[in-house]
Amino acid sequence: MQTLHQALLLQKLYLLKSIGFDYYDLQFQKPLQTQFPSQNQKNLNQAIKECQLCPQKLSQPHIGLCNPHSKLLFLTITPLLDLQTRFVSKGALMLKKIIENVFALPLQQVSILSLLKCEIPKNTQEECTKNCMGYFLKQLEFSQSKTIVILGEEVYNALTQDKTPYKNIQGKLFKWNHLKLFPTFSLAQLLRQPELKIQAHKEFLTLKKDLYETNQ
């Protein structure tokens, strides 16, 4: 029975590929922490605030912006907003302009989250990202976002563990489990190299078109 199921699944994948569907063999990381009760978002927020999993953290945990029924979820490695959920850094202010001016969305219709919930030394980020993954996946569930905007290669690698060269997938929208992923430039890249904003704008318009068509 299992062999038959696998054969039918493979047949379906070949059919999808033949009609132009991009297939990526990606899997969600399973949450490494399940001990916190998370029946609602308020409970989850409290668990994040009280988290002591990483002794090397350099700040208090950041919850980020997690709105229910988000149309888009923007994902970074480290926290982008401050502890009061304010847009104070250059990167945060730039993203705010992108959300409001390019996508024409109010902040209440997006979520802005990070894989790491605290400021963490660079040499321990990989280990700590695994500790935080359960929190992020729960936030993703509560946000109900169907599209994740991946802000940079580092975020993509940490989330998916996929080895596909980033240049091959950047600016493209593809299915990943029950979600859509849209890998693009990191905010740090756009700040360091302003000339990349032209290409980033084109990529965002691709996503905006899909978002518009999906909500028709």
TrEMBL record:
<keyword id="KW-0408">Iron</keyword>
<dbReference type="InterPro" id="IPR005122">
    <property type="entry name" value="Uracil-DNA_glycosylase-like"/>
</dbReference>
<dbReference type="GO" id="GO:0097506">
    <property type="term" value="F:deaminated base DNA N-glycosylase activity"/>
</dbReference>
<keyword id="KW-0411">Iron-sulfur</keyword>
<keyword id="KW-0378">Hydrolase</keyword>
<dbReference type="InterPro" id="IPR051536">
    <property type="entry name" value="UDG_Type-4/5"/>
</dbReference>
<protein>
    <submittedName>
        <fullName>Uracil-DNA glycosylase</fullName>
    </submittedName>
</protein>
<dbReference type="GO" id="GO:0006281">
    <property type="term" value="P:DNA repair"/>
</dbReference>
<keyword id="KW-0227">DNA damage</keyword>
<dbReference type="GO" id="GO:0051539">
    <property type="term" value="F:4 iron, 4 sulfur cluster binding"/>
</dbReference>
<feature type="domain" description="Uracil-DNA glycosylase-like">
    <location>
        <begin position="64"/>
        <end position="203"/>
    </location>
</feature>
<keyword id="KW-0479">Metal-binding</keyword>
<dbReference type="InterPro" id="IPR036895">
    <property type="entry name" value="Uracil-DNA_glycosylase-like_sf"/>
</dbReference>
<dbReference type="GO" id="GO:0046872">
    <property type="term" value="F:metal ion binding"/>
</dbReference>
<keyword id="KW-0004">4Fe-4S</keyword>
<dbReference type="Pfam" id="PF03167">
    <property type="entry name" value="UDG"/>
</dbReference>
<keyword id="KW-0234">DNA repair</keyword>
